[in-house]
Amino acid sequence: MADGSGLETFSNHANSTTTATPPSVAAEGQTQAQRDAALKRALVFISIAAASAGLAYAIVRATLTRAPIDPTTERIQQLIDEANRLLKQLDEKKPD
């Protein structure tokens, strides 16, 4: 039943002419496969967590409104503008 269909029985497989891999090598391969699978899962988890954090940060930044302008700051700017206007008027009234 070695037709390549993958339906060989254990007894047919054991009687085949191929050499069997030693148990230690098979165990190493299985252990390596387990490590690879665990690493893959960890990387997928980290990727999802990073994408979620980035998305949450972007949403928070977009939804936060800037703090309203402080009335004191607004009044100070008005006073500065008025002072500049008055200085300009004085400069215009000076005799040359």
Textual characterization of the structure:
There is one protein chain. With 96 residues, the protein is an all-alpha fold. Helix content is 72%, strand content 0%. It has one domain. The protein has three helices and no strands. It is rod-shaped, with a radius of gyration of 39 Å.
Helix content: over 70%
Ranges where pLDDT stays below 50 over 5 or more residues in a row are none
Strand content: under 5%
Q: How would you sum up the global shape?
A: rod-shaped
**Number of E strands:** 0
Mean pLDDT across all residues, rounded?
80
Structural class: mainly alpha
For the record, the count of structural domains works out to: 1
Biggest sheet, open or closed, and with what strands and sense?
A: none
What is the terminal-to-terminal distance? 116 Å
Order of helices and strands: HHH
Number of helices: 3
Rg from Cα: 39 Å
